[in-house]
């Protein structure tokens, strides 16, 4: 395939959106390596700190459904600027937080900004680039976003040892302010003149559902809820989802139209994202904690060992498009999901005595497979949507991504707490076997989610010319990240 050439204005927009993606994804994981240090500073247990991670992801999941409507109503430029300012203010509040509860509140404010950076930036690209440039455009902006997510633990560990944990948040303040200024000058002011009113009732139902289901999972871990409370929250969440589905089928302009699920690739992609990302979301939280609490690594050492993931992720990126062209989404995603789950289970075998080269290879393999997973499943989700479905479908995908990331952390914390109780472990430093049990369980869930992707239509057509097969495999409306 010929390399796509972008004009100067197109490249400027891509860099602006890429910086926004980088900030949002960096802060989703930079806290993970610093959790033990933050816990010590705030006089909390490290295994209770996952609430600060879940609060950020959950806030993003709650706000994202309204992001498409806000961008259509007020314009991409104004919303992107507001998002950058909120992100900077929330970051400053996190650095100044004296208690865990204050940190959680500051993470919520930070999440409000982060929730708009990702989907609004992607929507600007979606509406600014023709279909023949879209895959390459989204691949361009996805790399910094993926880098932010994967180097976050590394940078967090280095900052904790070099200065203090406060700087993992303070570095966002100037970046956010510069981003807001750049957006005012460079972001196109795209909006939909025909946008209708926001579906407030549906938004409330969906918000209640997500918050209740996330709290039910988090309640099994750090929050320590009684089982009856967890059950009530879970049932309330399921009731909220049911109520929303019934509501969306009877109103003329729902937040997310049920007709989106009439597109087979979107239906499979959304469900696959939800379950497959639980494992991907749990790993940046679990691996640095295991290394520091049970294997004797310092924050900087644990962070540095995450670097092979980032490097492998970037290296494998160009391979994703070629694999899709050659084998189709169904085969690539099904096989890759199984491999991803097995690699997650492989982390249960980590011990302090293993050689460094083995750890580097393990991290690099996971980074490469995880990167390929992100690219393929996000692309297949949105590739067949019509132009009038793009904003809604884009927002739903972003919501599911953040919800599953928060669920991954909450599930990991709940599994660790359950295995600790089952094994009779009370000391944090002796929780290695609890971590191992959690890795195996999460890996199994990831492997089983391959069945979701197997429901895709077989888009592999052996013997077809490359251009014809690429056209079938990629299709219109390509997305990544």
TrEMBL record:
Record GO terms (molecular function): transmembrane transporter activity
Keyword Phosphoprotein: no
Any matching Pfam family: MFS_1
Stretches that traverse the bilayer: 12-31, 51-71, 78-98, 104-125, 137-159, 165-183, 195-217, 223-246, 266-287, 299-319, 331-350, 402-422, 434-454
Main location as per UniProt: membrane
Keywords of this entry: Cell membrane, Membrane, Transmembrane, Transmembrane helix, Transport
A cellular-component GO term for this protein: plasma membrane
Domain of life: Bacteria
Subcellular compartments: Cell membrane
Cited InterPro entries: EmrB-like, MFS, MFS_dom, MFS_trans_sf
Membrane topology: Multi-pass membrane protein
Record-annotated Major facilitator superfamily (MFS) profile domain positions: 13-461
Protein name: DHA2 family efflux MFS transporter permease subunit
Source species of the chain: Lampropedia aestuarii
Lineage summary: Bacteria, Pseudomonadati, Pseudomonadota, Betaproteobacteria, Burkholderiales
């Amino acid at each position: 395939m010929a390399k796509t050439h972008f004009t100067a204005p197109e490249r400027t927009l891509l860099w602006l959106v890429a910086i926004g993606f980088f900030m949002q994804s960096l802060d989703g994981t930079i806290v993970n390596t610093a959790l033990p240090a933050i816990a010590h500073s705030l006089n909390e247990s490290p295994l209770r700190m996952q609430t600060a991670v879940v609060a950020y992801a959950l806030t993003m999941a709650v706000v994202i459904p309204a992001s498409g409507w806000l961008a259509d109503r007020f314009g991409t430029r104004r919303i992107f600027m507001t998002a950058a300012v909120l992100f900077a203010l929330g970051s400053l509040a996190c650095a100044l937080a004296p208690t865990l509860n204050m940190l959680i509140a500051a993470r919520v404010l930070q999440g409000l900004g982060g929730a708009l950076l990702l989907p609004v930036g992607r929507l600007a690209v979606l509406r600014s680039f023709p279909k023949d440039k879209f895959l390459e455009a989204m691949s361009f902006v996805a790399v910094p976003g993926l880098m932010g997510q994967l180097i976050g633990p590394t940078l967090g560990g280095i900052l904790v040892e070099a200065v203090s944990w406060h700087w993992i948040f303070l570095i966002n303040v100037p970046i956010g302010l510069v981003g807001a200024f750049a957006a005012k000058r460079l972001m196109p002011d795209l909006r939909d003149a025909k946008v209708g009113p926001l579906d407030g009732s549906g938004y409330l139902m969906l918000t209640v559902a997500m918050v209740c289901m996330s709290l039910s999972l988090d309640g099994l871990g750090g929050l320590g809820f009684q089982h009856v409370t967890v059950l009530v929250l879970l049932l309330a969440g399921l009731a909220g989802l049911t109520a929303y589905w019934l509501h969306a089928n009877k109103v003329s302009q729902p937040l997310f139209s049920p007709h989106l699920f009439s597109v087979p690739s979107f239906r499979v992609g959304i469900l696959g994202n939800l379950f497959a990302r639980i494992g991907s979301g749990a790993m940046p939280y679990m691996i640095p904690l295991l290394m520091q609490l049970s294997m004797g690594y310092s924050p900087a050492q644990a962070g540095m060992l995450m670097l092979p993931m980032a490097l492998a992720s970037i290296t494998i990126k160009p391979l994703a498009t070629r694999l899709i062209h050659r084998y189709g989404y169904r085969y690539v995603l099904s096989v890759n999901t199984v491999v991803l789950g097995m690699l997650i289970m492989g982390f249960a075998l980590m011990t302090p005595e293993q050689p460094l080269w083995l750890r580097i290879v393990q991290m690099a393999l996971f980074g490469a497979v995880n990167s390929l997973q992100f690219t393929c499943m996000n692309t297949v989700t949105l590739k067949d949507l019509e132009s009038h479905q793009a904003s809604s479908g884009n927002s739903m995908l972003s919501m599911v991504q953040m919800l599953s990331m928060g669920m991954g952390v909450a599930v990991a914390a709940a599994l660790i707490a359950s295995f600790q109780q089952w094994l009779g472990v009370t000391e944090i430093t002796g929780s290695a076997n609890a971590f191992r049990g959690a890795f195996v369980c999460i890996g199994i869930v990831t492997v089983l989610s391959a069945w979701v992707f197997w429901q895709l239509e077989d888009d592999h057509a052996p013997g077809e010319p490359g251009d014809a097969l690429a056209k079938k495999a990629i299709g219109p409306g390509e997305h990544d990240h």
